[in-house]
Amino acid sequence: MPRGITPFDGTTLPPNRASDVSNVLEARNALGKRLRELRLRAGRSGRELAESLSWARSKVSKLENGHQTPTDDDIRAWTQATSSENQTEALLISLHTLEVQHADWQRVLRTGIRPRQNKLAELDQQTRLFRAFEATVIPGLLQTPGYARARFAEAIRRLKVPNDVDEAVRGRLARQEILDRSDKRFHFVLTEAALRYRLCPPDVMLSQLGYLISCTALPNVRLGVIGFETQYVTSPWHGFWIYDNDKVLIETMSAALDLRQPQEIELYGVAFEQLAAVASYGRSARVIIARAIEDLESEVPDSGE
Length: 305
Hints:
Distance between the termini: 29 Å
Mean pLDDT: 87
Number of domains: 2
Number of helices: 13
CATH architecture of the largest domain: 2-Layer Sandwich
């Protein structure tokens, strides 16, 4: 049976609920302040530093104000130009910590999507309990090849990264066997909206919805659907995946967030339980999915026409 992939959901975080990225922003700003301190200690203006490094003048300002993440080479060039090479290693450690928390897609996918899938497959092997909530897309491990291909194609177009969609789909489908592992448990919750968003051709979506129904019978998978008529306790702001009690992964339009602070994991754990509590399961979930299939079938021409 076709199974799928961790989603590129394209979800952006609402400004008034962005506390989960505050640590990332603070870390980037702190790194920028340290760079500014080194420049001022060296008695160099931003313009002088930029000219000495053959950079655009705006780059120094962006780095110091946390509007751009430096590269390793940027750090090394900065410390050399400010005669503070003894700070290079500490700055690089701060940078690499930031890169783990906030993985910019342009950097992560610069060689294509398949390598990212290989990394996630490694994480799958280490995880025993998967909890995933999706508001706009079908949960990754439950995607069919056609639906997965559409999601990858969108990411390639949007991010302008190398087109390795065939390899990416093959790599992600290889993860499907993990759903049959008796030592793994999966709890997926999605909204009815995710069943109805037109993110692929109707025939592809019909196949996807049909497969979802079969997934409700998998022994170690719990699949819940929150119908349109349901009263929410926690707002479905964005999708997120909780791996055991170790980390939370969130995909935004520009980057992947890796949250590991205990208070953040606890926050998302509580949110997941509240969303899961109002979801429909088993036969009730299948009724919601079947309703989406019936509505979509009316738009697909009969093959005999």
